[in-house]
Amino acid sequence: MSQKFITILLAMLLGIQAVATDLYLSALPSIQADLLATIGQTQLTLSAMMLSFGVSQLFLGPLSDRFGRKPVLLLGVALFTLAGLATAMASSIGWLIALQGVGVGAAVMSGRAVLRDLFAPERGAMVMSKAFTGLGFIALGCAVIGSAASQFLGWRSTLALMGLFGFALWIMLVMRFQETLAARNPHALQLRTLAGNWLAILSHPAFLTYSMLSTFTFCSMINFLAGSSFVFIKMLGLSKLQYGLCSFFMPISYISGTFYCRYLLKRYGLQRAVKRAVWLTLVPGLALGTFAALGIQTLPTLLAPFYLYMVGHGVMQSSGQSGAVAHFPEKAGVASALNGFLMMASGFATSLWLGAHLVDTAAPMMYGMAFFALMVSGVAWFVVPKFGQLPK
Fold first, then answer.
1. Which residues, 6+ apart, have CB-to-CB distance to 108 below 8 Å?
2. Topology of domain 3-175+192-387, per CATH?
3. What is the pLDDT of residues 277-306, one digit of tens each?
4. Would residue 154 be called left, alpha or beta, if left means φ above 0 and alpha means ψ between -120 and 50 degrees?
């Protein structure tokens, strides 16, 4: 398999998360109305997906180390596809979206493991950044297509589109993907081995460092995305198409961040790149917190800081996810799974908190972003330089 194909495949595997969320974000208010639910109950669909996404990786990671990446990928993407098509026709969607989360977990976890199978850490960070550029374009399409589909075809059409994306990805895996795991671990599923691997990884300073980086920046993004459709459509009065247009520029900012990430990696290496990009996270986070404290909740004061934050997110997420698995080439599946679990569990808690507090003001969403921006900045400034050394 060529590096170009691997990069495209990784973009689709990582992009399945954007497909599972961004496609139906604009439809959340319609889902709420049709199912006679509260904002918090509607957001539970997103929370359920993130929870199953995170927890499933704890089991899928060892499975991929035992049986290989391809079987886990085929099974997970098939589950995502079938659940997506079924959700589009079901009267109750919560448990089906939770099943989709398992499929997303298989795709994203395996994608990170494949990256470590094939590339050394510094090179892997570059390839990861390119894959995240592709993810940005997928998210870009999802924002526009999801809003248009929800507006003209109804919210169920956005769920059907998820299934179609999954089917295309499954065909690609069957036809082109070759196993990347050099040596399967026959003991990977044994309880003693599992416990030993989890303990070794969770106690490793570099893993904890880069997992904190990826988790805090992910939570900040989830905090905004989970609340943005309600804030912009129900509180600020935008139409679904107008919301889609606002969402259109978010992936563009993110894509810019992935290009900037590659520039920084080439010039400074991963550790120094993260520290130099921290202002792209801290400045917009502090701006949102300040606007919230002053009671300024307008479209420009919400969008401008978030667009800038997404540039920084393109650096922090690429660096965090690649750095988390860098020290574990022989346990890449487990390391990827644990990193994913920490991100999703934290994202789940964040969405639950936001659903409970986001009622008639955008302030909780704004304060949430400010908090996580401070956390990301603290890790980038003080923890990564001390504990983020990568293996050669």
1. 13, 14, 16, 17, 53, 57, 340
2. Growth Hormone; Chain: A; (1.20.1250)
3. 999 999 999 999 999 999 898 888 998 999
4. left
